[in-house]
Automatic annotation (TrEMBL):
Organism: Streptomyces mooreae
Gene3D superfamilies attached to this UniProt entry: 1.10.1660.10
Superkingdom as given in the UniProt entry: Bacteria
Claim: DNA-binding is one of the keywords in the record: yes
A Pfam family it matches: MerR_1
Keywords for this protein: DNA-binding
Full protein name: MerR family transcriptional regulator
Matching InterPro entries: DNA-bd_dom_put_sf (IPR009061), MerR-type_HTH_dom (IPR000551), MerR_fam (IPR047057)
Residue span(s) of domain HTH merR-type: 38-95
UniProt KW Oxidoreductase keyword: no
Length: 248
């Protein structure tokens, strides 16, 4: 386990008073003094992303040192105050561990791309929030008849005022790829319904954050929604793979 560097990013934060490793539940209690929106799922997500590496007991339980807790606090602080992506936060932490001085950007208001939807980690963000019908047809390399068919099944949904979210391009390409294997739009309605249920679960978690009086907490709700969506996609993929193995 790497020690958490001091200075630069401000590694002050909650830690156990006696210096002994603590459970993830205790970490949650300690962090919530400063980060009321943090959850156990969030801590596990940061661990999965390699931002903290708690030790494990022989029975598999996580044990967090005071340095681990301070590192988590630093990550959450950089997300909350500077809206930094996890990749940049990891680079800052690595630089601090090498003894380098890190200059963080000034606290900022949420940028436009923070609130325009869910994207895969590391993916390039689109420069436009909406695209037109012709642009969607060209980007997805499909014809008007196919797009109209997908819309009739609710797989692609235009905005009332016209245009489509940029994510519609990815959706259209995936529908087209699945169609090459004989899967028709009517077969994919169950997938769309499952996605809407998962989105509903994410909304249940972040809704209290969006109603918070603190504007930074409201902005952090969008980052939380993206992380929950990423975890949901991973879980869905793992469950599909597991189900296929059972059937093979």
């Amino acid at each position: 386990m790497r020690d958490t560097p001091k200075g630069g990013a401000g590694f002050s934060g909650a830690a156990s008073s006696d210096g002994k490793p603590v459970s993830i539940g205790t970490v949650l209690t300690l962090l919530r003094e400063e980060f009321p929106e943090v959850t156990i799922s969030k801590i596990r997500f940061l661990e999965a992303e390699g931002l903290v590496e708690p030790k494990r007991t022989p029975s598999g339980y996580r044990k967090f040192t005071p340095a681990d807790v301070e590192r988590l606090a630093a990550v959450l602080r950089m997300q909350r105050d500077h809206y930094l992506p996890l990749k940049v936060i990891r680079e800052h932490l690595d630089a601090l561990e090498r003894g380098e001085r890190v200059q963080l950007p000034a606290p900022a208001t949420p940028s436009r791309d923070l609130v325009e939807g869910v994207h895969e980690p590391g993916a390039e963000r689109p420069t436009a929030a909406r695209i037109g019908r012709a642009e969607l047809l060209a980007a997805a390399e499909v014809d008007e008849a196919a797009l109209a068919d997908w819309e009739s099944y609710g797989l692609i949904v235009p905005h009332a005022e016209g245009g489509y979210d940029i994510e519609a391009v990815t959706v259209a390409k995936l529908i087209a790829d699945l169609g090459r294997f004989g899967l028709e739009p009517r077969h994919l309605r169950a997938v769309k319904a499952a996605a809407e249920r998962e989105a509903g679960l994410v909304e249940q978690v972040v809704a209290p954050l969006r109603r918070h009086r603190n504007p930074q907490t409201r902005a952090h709700a969008e980052a939380t929604a993206r992380e929950l969506a990423t975890l949901s996609v991973r879980l869905h993929a793992a469950l599909v793979q597991s189900a296929l193995r059972v059937r093979l």
